[in-house]
Amino acid sequence: MEKKRAKWGLIFCLPFILTFLVFQLYPIIYSFYLSLTFQENSRNFVFVGFDNYKDLINDKTFWKSVGNTWKIWLMNFIPQLIFGLVLAILLTQYKIKGAGFFRAVFYLPNLITVASMGVLFLALFDWQTGSVNNALVDLAILKEKVNWMSSPSFAQGITAFIQWLMWFGYSSILLTAGIAAIPEEVIESSVIDGANAWKRLTKITLPLLKPTMLYVMVTSLIGGMQIFDIPMTLTKGSGEPSKSLMTMVLYLYNMAFKNNDLPYGATISYGIFVIIIFFSLIFFKVIYGKEEKSA
């Protein structure tokens, strides 16, 4: 009976195993192989070792794209975490009426495709026909229309805002689940002991939220380092103005598919992978490092 169960278990696992091998493991291995080659033409790849990685280290455009990506992510993630945490606390610990309705409303932007949001904001801030310019001019706030997307800082800010708008509701739901998982006995005991709302937040809620916050940080980092849709939509792949929206994945896309340099595109992808792994480990160490030392 045990052998039969093991046999059927393996059969049911085969679709996942085959899918993983064909669509995930093979592309990962093949991409690494490509990163070690030079593309002579569409079919011939010559092995060059780690030359592409040496070029990547000295590639100023790549490091600019790294800086752009980090800046956009931080401008999005810090407000996202603050708003998500505040909303989670208000909707959970203060028993606000209609909490379920508010959670659904805050989550709604996440259901819209990223490209659609990019097209919407591109239309809103179009300097000739955009609704924002027209409204500000009609209200006499502006004397003449402004080309908003010609400013690198504004372009990065609007990209970060779109990311924040789409994801802070999702983060608040995760943080709400983390707060709801805190035993009520712990909260009640702290109230009996005389702890005020601030002490309950800093001494109980936030420490017990560490696993959830780590998950939110790491998943946000992974998504933020791979931001592509919004810069692609806003700039049609150019990364302008002044390459301020040239993110790492957009640079990868341009090198691999516009310039037809697949080996260098694969090299960039592994560069992104190393950056994500490195900073994910740092986040884990920062959150749990002190506890490990004290133990």
From TrEMBL:
One of its GO terms (cellular component) is plasma membrane. Residues 66-285 form the ABC transmembrane type-1 domain. Coiled coil: none annotated. SUPFAM superfamilies: MetI-like. It is found in: Cell membrane. It holds the Pfam family BPD_transp_1. This is Sugar ABC transporter permease.
